[in-house]
Task: structure prediction
Amino acid sequence: MAILERSDTGAIAHLTLNAPERLNALSDEMLAALQDQFDALQNDKSIRVVILSGAGKAFCAGHDLKQMTQGRQAEDGGKAYFQDLFDRCARMMLSIQSLPQPVIARVHGIATAAGCQLVATCDLAVAAEGTRFGVNGVNIGLFCSTPMVALSRNIPRKQAFEMLTTGEFISAERAAELGLINRVVPELLLEHETEALAKQLEGKLGAAVKIGKRAFYEQIHMPVDQAYSHTAEVMAQNMMHRDTEEGISAFIEKRPPNWRQ
Result:
């Protein structure tokens, strides 16, 4: 049984974290499997949307603490292992946002520590009612510094700091209010609603979504004047695309576009 399962439905790739007995922890093996899939998806033109979910009763409980404890047995107390672990995790997270396809997290149960980081890193997130989110490392003496990077870029500063320093969970409804996730749905409708969102994205011009996703993450950390200059150039390039011309013509002529991509 694979630790990460992939199944494709049309142009939608479904990645399922498949270590339910460990609450889908981001073990060395899980990180490697995720990285392999994201590397493969980078150039997979047949896939337009990715859905990331977890098997069992939780989405993801963060790093594998038992495995991390074993890493301490090295001569340096585990320092080199831990540095490598967090570097590999950061690379995997960055791969999500560098993908040309939008990535949707389908979240249930709990998303804690690096699991919460994973939700914050995905481009979109749909959660079931009753899901809880936390960056709880402080409760065991390990401040969630790397999860903090994604979290603090999703929700307001003071709310992020409160979560990080208290180690308390927030509800799915609160996560939606803060902007950590896009929507909350009844658990029985989680799969259906996530698929509906994916199909909506699937129907857009893939080249435009790819251009737009890259520009979104490029401009978001720029000063406003630089962001406008950069995105003006991006839009000018987008306008040169044959399918964009077709999309505009179809809108004017009140007909469906005949896109090649």
User: Anything to note?
Assistant: The chain is about 50% helix and 15% strand.
